[in-house]
Every structure is written in C-alpha cells, then in structure tokens.
Design brief:
Layout: H1 12-28, H2 30-52, H3 59-81, H4 83-107, H5 121-140, H6 146-166, E1 186-194, E2 197-207, H7 219-223, E3 230-236, E4 247-251, H8 259-265, H9 268-274, E5 278-282, H10 305-328, E6 334-339, H11 341-349, E7 358-362, H12 368-375, H13 378-386, H14 391-397, E8 416-420, H15 428-437, E9 442-446, H16 457-471
Parallel strand pairs: 4-5, 4-6, 6-7, 8-9
Antiparallel strand pairs: 1-2, 2-3, 3-5
Length: about 475
C-alpha cells in the first residue's frame, strides 16, 4: 500500500458536505432534516474516518455513496431548502464523490505486470462509481451467524475430503458431468426497449436437470432452490435463421439477469445489428427469474462455499446444454464473451468446449475466494476465521470451478482479455492472473474502472478484431 498522509486532503470534501447537509437540515425543520440525514451522516462519517484511519480501503465506498445520495437528494432539496443552498449541497456532494475516487486510487497497491493508473478527475469519477457500487453490495451482504458459520465450515471440511478422495482437486475437470443435449426448450417471443430502440427477443427456458453429486455436502439445500431449477436465456437471432450466421454467447455479471440490463450491457445495436451475430444470453444460477433471495444473485457469493461451487457447476452445465441447442439450430461458429462474474464463467466455459472459436473475458473475476476475502465485511471475515473458516481450505474447495485450475481449449490466438487498471470491484491482479495462466494472449488494459470499459475505444477494437478473426464473417 502506498504511503498515505496523516490528514488526506480528500477527507475535507465529504466532511464539509456532510456537516453542511446536517446544518441546513436541522435549520430547515423536520422535512429538510429527514432529507439531509442519510447523505449527511454518510459524508460526515466517511470524511471523519478518512482523517482518523486514512488507510482503510472500505471508507471511500461510503464517501462515494454519500456523494451520490447528496447529488440525487439535492433535487428535492431545492423545494425544501431553496435553489441556492441545494445547488451548494449538490456541488459539494459531487466533489465528495470525485474525492472518494481520488483517494481510492491513491490507496491501491501497484500491480506487477499491469500498467499504472494515471490520476485524473475522469479516472477519479470512474473509480468513485465502483466505490459506490461496493458500498451498496457491502451494506446488503447477509451476516452469517455462529451456527451457520460452523455449519459451512463442517461442509467445507467434508467436501474437501470427498473431493480429495475422488481426485477432483487434482483434476478439476472430472468434477463436472457431461450434460444432456437440449432438444426442445420452451420459447416465447418478447421485446424490450434498450437505448432508445425496441428489440424483439426470444425467452428460452428449460428444466436444468443439474444435480450435485449424490454424496456431496450441500446437495439437498441446493436442490431445494426451486426457482433455480428452471434455466433461462434471452436469444436475439435474425429472421433469416441462416445456418451459417455466427453466434455469440454473452454471459452477464453479478446481480444482473434481466432482459433489459443484460441486453443493454452487450449492446445489441453493435453485436446483433452491425456485426450480424445471433446472440445467446444465458441467465446464471440464482439470478433474474432464478433468484431465491430478495435480490438477483443473492447466495452466489455470500460466503457459503458449497453454494458457490454448485452455482458455478450448474452454470457450466446449463450453458453447455445451450451450446448443444445452438448447434442443433445449425450454429457452428460460436464465440463466448462475458463481463465481470460473466467473465469468470466465460473463462471457465473456454475450458470445457473445444468447439468454441473464441473467448473474450471482460473485467473477469478469476479467484472468488480472494475476491470474497477482499470485499467481505472485515468483522464478518474475522468472525468466519474465528469459527474455523480457513481461507486456504475455502480457496482449495473452489479449485473444481476455477478457470485458473483448468486449461483453456480455445485456440491461443482467439483468446482476448480486457481489464481496468483502476478497477476496484475486480482488482487488476485477478485479470492479470488469467492472462498469465492463458499464456499471455492479447490483452487491453484501459485507463478506467470496472463499469466504464465501454468508454475505452481500445476495448471495442479488441472485441471487434477477435470476433471478426475467429468467427470468419
């Protein structure tokens, strides 16, 4: 970690903004006070914390979130406080947002074999968006109790023994069963408005039929997740149904899984219309219509190691079944592209299907154990370790679904990776590790954060070139 000043300059922006929010809120009466409470407390707390504990990487999360809320709540504050005070609060909140990103960039350790980040206001704003996202994820992450933590620990221990005895830790590919071909999925026509245009698509669904191994810990719990037993995918294919038309499988990120968000993330105007590709967008387990919690993705990365293993194993099972259906429709030229958690699944899928022409993991997570230990609430991590949840055991168990433990089957010249040098959600070392494991294929490092890859022309150029070369269209 780079050396930090005792009183970092970025701390004064959220501190001043928060105090002003609370002061004007108190002076304005009950309604303005209630309006000011959330951004005011978040900004004061994070600004003060940055002064007292400037090296804590979680503090900028809440400073950025407070800045976002301050800007948004500044609009109704116009009616409660007046135009002048509201504009001042919005300006200070925006400055706090950017300051949080600037501070986060200074906190990050330089990563070997990754280009350095070049500090700027634009980069700070991009990083602040990551910080605000991490704050919302951290606030909503479930807390594991003593009994649940001990139960998870016992499951991990039992599963490690089983996996070791079966040889799955040494040869992870043997953990995965060959899925059944998908012959006749249910298909209904739907449409969605994306970026000003309406896109017709097909909603494909089928019974997954995935089951964990019969003597595997956590099997019965996983099978009890009833909505997850039905697999879903969004399909955008051309009316001509030409058998020679290439397909691109696009795997969404964490907490996505709805047609609007998924289709927008992969820009159908470009891939579907300009390049003429058919698109298959599978819904990952526990996401979208498959969710079993309050939010899409709940349970996928919540600290229960066996649920994470089964989610990834089922993702591979379901997507490989979808590949069999594409081929039954005459599709022979197929590539895969994924973003974030979808990048993880893209990289993992590239190890199981020798017929894939190319694989393009974007901002890909590659080590879920390391990612959980980085982003999980510190008290929760310490609590888990106190009750016997050892990082090494957790990480070893995830070997069976790790793209870093399996060899890719996609030709080296058709592998491509991109990552942000200042990504706070998926740190650059995760992207670098995949690049090294894959034999250092073509990679683009853009000056940006996790959610801003679309702003980098070099990313679009990499994806475009890889698809055109690999899919021969």
């Amino acid at each position: 970690m780079q050396e930090q000043p005792r009183f970092p300059r970025e701390s004064w922006f959220p501190l001043a903004a928060g105090l002003l929010w609370l002061w004007w809120g108190v002076a304005g009466g009950i309604a303005p006070f209630l309006l000011s409470l959330l951004p005011g407390v978040l900004l004061v707390a994070s600004g003060g914390a940055q002064l007292l504990w400037p090296g804590d990487p979680r503090i900028p999360h809440h400073a950025a979130l407070g800045g976002v809320l301050g800007v948004l709540l500044g609009l109704p504050a116009i009616f409660a406080l007046g135009l002048g005070p509201a504009l001042v609060l919005m300006a200070l909140s925006a400055a706090s947002f950017v300051a949080a990103g600037s501070f986060a960039v200074r906190l990050e350790v330089p990563t070997e074999n990754v280009p350095p980040a070049h500090p700027s206001l634009g980069l700070a704003a991009q990083v602040a968006a990551d910080e605000a996202l991490l704050a919302t994820m951290g606030i909503s992450m479930p807390t594991l109790g003593t009994d649940e933590t001990r139960a998870i620990g016992r499951e991990v221990e039992a599963a490690r023994e089983l996996f070791q005895d079966r040889g799955w830790l040494e040869k992870p590919d043997r953990y995965h069963a060959q899925p059944f071909p998908l012959d006749a999925p249910r298909i209904r026509d739907r449409s969605v408005r994306v970026r000003g245009g309406r896109f017709p698509f097909e909603h494909l669904s089928f019974e997954s039929e995935y089951e964990p191994h019969r003597d595997e810990p956590g099997r019965e719990r996983w099978l009890d997740y009833a909505p997850n037993r039905t697999a879903h995918a969004w399909v955008l294919r051309h009316a001509d149904r030409a058998e020679s038309r290439p397909w691109l499988v696009c795997v969404h990120g964490y907490q996505m899984g709805s047609p609007l968000i998924d289709i927008a993330a992969f820009d159908p105007r470009y891939f579907h219309q300009k390049l003429g590709l058919n698109l298959m967008l599978p819904v990952l387990p526990l996401h979208g219509p498959r969710k079993v919690g309050r939010r899409s993705g709940d349970g996928f990365l919540a600290g229960n190691a066996l649920d994470t293993v089964h989610a990834e194993a089922q993702a591979m099972w379901d997507i490989r079944r979808l590949l069999s259906w594409i081929r039954s429709q005459g599709g022979s030229e197929i590539g895969v592209h994924g973003l974030s958690l979808g990048g993880y699944n893209c990289a993992l899928l590239a190890c199981f299907d020798e017929g894939l022409r190319c694989a393009i993991p974007g901002v890909p997570a590659t080590d879920l154990a390391r990612l959980y230990w980085r982003h999980g609430p510190s008290p929760q991590i310490r609590f888990m370790e106190h009750h016997g949840m050892v990082y090494d055991e957790f990480a070893e168990l995830l070997t069976v679904v790790s793209p870093l433990a399996l060899e890719p089957a996609v030709p080296h010249q058709h592998r491509a990776i991109f990552g942000g040098v200042a990504d706070r959600v998926v740190p650059p070392d995760q992207v670098r590790d995949l690049w090294e494991h894959w034999g250092q294929p073509e990679v683009v490092w853009y000056q940006g954060a996790h959610m801003t890859f679309a702003l980098a022309p070099s990313v679009r150029e990499l994806v475009d070139t890889t698809l055109r070369t690999a899919l021969a269209f």
